[in-house]
Specification:
disordered N terminus; Beta-lactamase; about 375 residues; globular; 10 helices; alpha+beta; 17 strands; Peptidoglycan synthesis regulatory factor (PBP3), Domain 2
């Protein structure tokens, strides 16, 4: 009897474990939370995701993105002396320090430097208030409908708020930027700044980068009002997920649970666009093959591959000259009728322009050396 009871207990325990792994994450401590598929934007889990809350230094996702998009990443300048006089976390800027926009992005995304965020804002926009206007304009452009920025650092301020959902939208957008994606995924970085500039190492405050398999970013945050805030992204087998928690006493655990759940209910769908043969006018060959520049994969809900379709945009014909690898068309990828990405279609062969045949008069000029 004892043996039967032990076996039954083990079976029930295994069943509970299976249900917990496959069901929605339980005991999420965050006041607001969301988990989305970065590729499709699908919401996999949410808790008060549209509630407006302070978001602390996760604000710096927007600040860093705008700084990167402003260009001139390696142009040196002196950090504004007033901008760097700010409380809280710091990259250690001092009056007269020579920096670059790139260095400031490292400074705000790794050690969460409020001095870095303010210095970048003033350099990019001329003032913190002007930069906040840029932040709000960008937020509107990418669909952050319940967000208003006041500070580039994320320090508490009246009217500075977002939602877990909006921060997920922002992060999915930001992670498409290669520079942003690279920086926020580093556990540490060596760079030069100061007066004169000298080498130093900055360390990332995001523990998930070392604790969670596949974590590739993104940003921590804390203020007395916002409490613990965290945005994370993780990638496994071609699937990228984004998790956001606002006011979460146990955010590391929350994110691990949410991401584990997300990977359990998504699968990678491999996308290989078709190839086409296009006629060429005026070339040394009659046709050129248009082939996908690369294949891709996206994360979809289990069984969701049937919701993927591709629309091809190609001309009826091409004109020579054409270089091998030159883009001649586009394959746009849709998931549930929403465009989520595109793959260039490129020429598989060179095609040179044929020299026009000479007229009788042209041959006459050539004969007498006049052409």
């Amino acid at each position: 009897m004892k043996k039967i009871t032990a076996v039954l207990t083990a079976f029930v325990s295994a069943l509970i474990f299976t249900l917990n792994c496959c069901g929605e994450p339980a005991d999420i401590t965050a006041q607001s939370a969301i988990l989305i598929n970065a590729d499709t934007g699908e919401i996999l889990y949410e808790k008060n995701a549209h509630e407006q809350r302070a978001m602390a230094s996760t604000t710096k996702i927007m600040t860093a993105l705008l700084t990167i998009e402003a260009g001139q990443p390696d142009k040196r300048f002196i950090a504004d002396s007033m901008a760097i006089r700010v409380e809280g976390t710091s990259m250690g800027l001092k009056e007269g320090d020579i920096v670059t926009r790139r260095a400031l992005c490292y400074g705000m995304l790794l050690p969460s430097g409020n001095d870095a965020a303010n210095a970048a804002a003033v350099n990019v926009a001329g003032s913190i208030s002007a930069f906040a206007d840029m932040m709000n304009k960008k937020a509107a452009e990418i669909g952050m409908k319940n967000t208003h920025f006041v500070t580039p650092s994320g320090l508490d301020a009246d009217g500075h708020y977002s939602t877990a959902y909006d921060m997920a939208i922002l992060t999915a957008y930001a992670m498409k930027n290669e520079d942003f994606r690279k920086i926020c995924g580093l556990t540490s970085a060596s760079l030069e700044y100061g007066n004169p500039p000298y080498k130093r190492t900055l360390y990332n405050s995001n523990k998930l980068l070392k604790q969670y398999e596949g974590c590739i970013g993104v940003k921590t945050g804390f203020t007395d009002n916002a409490r613990r805030c965290l945005v994370s992204a993780a990638e496994r087998d071609g699937i990228t997920l984004i998790a956001v928690t606002l006011n979460a006493p146990d955010d590391w655990k929350d994110h691990s649970a949410m991401l584990d759940y997300g990977f359990s209910v998504t699968e990678a769908a491999h996308i290989t666009p078709e190839s086409f043969t296009l006629p060429v006018l005026g070339g040394d060959r009659e046709t050129v093959d248009a082939v996908p520049e690369y294949t891709d994969s996206i994360g979809v809900s289990e069984g969701g591959s049937e919701n993927i379709h591709i629309k091809y945009h190609l001309p009826d014909f091409l004109y020579a000259d054409i270089d091998k690898g030159e883009q001649v068309g586009t394959a746009k990828i849709y998931y549930k009728n929403r465009e989520i990405s595109s793959i260039p279609l490129v020429a598989a062969q060179d095609c040179r322009r044929l020299a026009p045949e000479k007229s009788v008069f042209g041959h006459f000029l050539e004969f007498f050396g006049l052409s």
